[in-house]
């Protein structure tokens, strides 16, 4: 039985977010104390760049944030 994808999964040179095997666009999320931004359109996790976050889910203010190569938000 194949393992059900959950959380942030590296695929095809990018990062994607799964919930119980379903590719999910979630906006700003918090996992293990770190923030990640999952594009609501395609479930891709923003990484290695700065991105304007609007779908914050009430976690942080809408603003421009920088994300490391592993997708974790870099907090100043």
Helix content percent band: under 10%
The total strand number stands at 8
Describe the biggest sheet? Answer: 3 strands, antiparallel
β-strand percent reads over 45%
Low-confidence stretches: none
Q: What is the CA-CA span between the terminal residues?
A: 43 Å
Q: Which word captures the global form?
A: globular
Order of helices and strands: EEEEEEEE
**Rounded to an integer, what's the Rg over CA atoms?**
12 Å
Structural class, from secondary structure content?
mainly beta
Verbal overview:
- With 76 residues, this protein is an all-beta fold.
- The protein has no helices and eight strands.
- The chain has strands spanning 7-11, 14-19, 22-23, 27-31, 34-38, 49-53, 63-67, 73-74.
- The protein has a three-stranded antiparallel beta sheet with strand order 1-2-3, with no helix packed on it. A three-stranded antiparallel beta sheet has the order 6-7-8, with no helix packed on it. Strands 4-5 form a two-stranded antiparallel sheet.
- Strand 4 and strand 5 (34-38) form a beta hairpin.
- The radius of gyration is 12 Å and the shape is globular.
- 17% of the residues are buried.
């Amino acid at each position: 039985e194949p393992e059900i994808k959950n959380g942030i999964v590296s695929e095809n040179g990018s990062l994607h977010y799964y919930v119980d095997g379903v590719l999910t666009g979630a906006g700003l999320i918090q996992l293990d104390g770190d923030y990640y931004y999952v594009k609501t359109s395609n479930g891709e996790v923003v990484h290695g760049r700065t991105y304007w976050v609007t779908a914050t889910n009430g976690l942080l203010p809408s603003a421009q944030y920088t994300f490391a190569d592993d997708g974790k938000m870099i907090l100043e």
